[in-house]
């Protein structure tokens, strides 16, 4: 449902831009610093829209890659901590088992009195 609303919103925005662009077909002067060109305003609007979308996609991709890298790093740190705690748990369990074994051995030995 959420994606449907996004699609509808995007289509409405595109429709508004298309109507705006079609209403403005007069030629305009565009200066690039080193040269000046005369293009129809509709072309300037569409090119600006395409550049804006391209920049938004690049920024979203950059943020997504950054977030994925941070997630991978956090997962690696968590796995290292899990491995450390697992090894410590194994060591403590072994110590506990050895202590219990020693206690049982002491009880099982007959006491020798002279």
TrEMBL record:
Residues 94-114 are annotated as: Disordered. Signal peptide: none annotated. The chain crosses the membrane at residues 7-25, 37-62. The keyword Membrane applies. Keywords: Cell membrane, Membrane, Transmembrane, Transmembrane helix. Residues 24-89 form the Lipopolysaccharide assembly protein A domain. InterPro entries: LapA_dom. This is Lipopolysaccharide assembly LapA domain-containing protein. It comes from Lactiplantibacillus dongliensis. The lineage of its organism: Bacteria, Bacillati, Bacillota, Bacilli, Lactobacillales.
């Amino acid at each position: 449902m959420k994606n449907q609303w996004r699609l509808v919103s995007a289509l409405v925005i595109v429709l508004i831009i298309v109507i705006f662009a079609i209403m403005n077909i007069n030629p305009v002067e565009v200066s690039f610093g080193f040269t000046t060109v005369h293009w129809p305003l509709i072309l300037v609007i569409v090119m600006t829209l395409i550049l804006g979308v391209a920049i938004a996609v690049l920024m979203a991709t950059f943020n997504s890659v950054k977030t994925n890298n941070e997630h991978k790093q956090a997962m690696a740190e968590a796995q290292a901590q899990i491995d450390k705690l697992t090894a410590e748990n194994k060591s403590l369990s072994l110590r506990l088992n050895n202590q219990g074994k020693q206690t049982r051995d002491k009880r099982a030995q007959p006491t020798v009195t002279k």
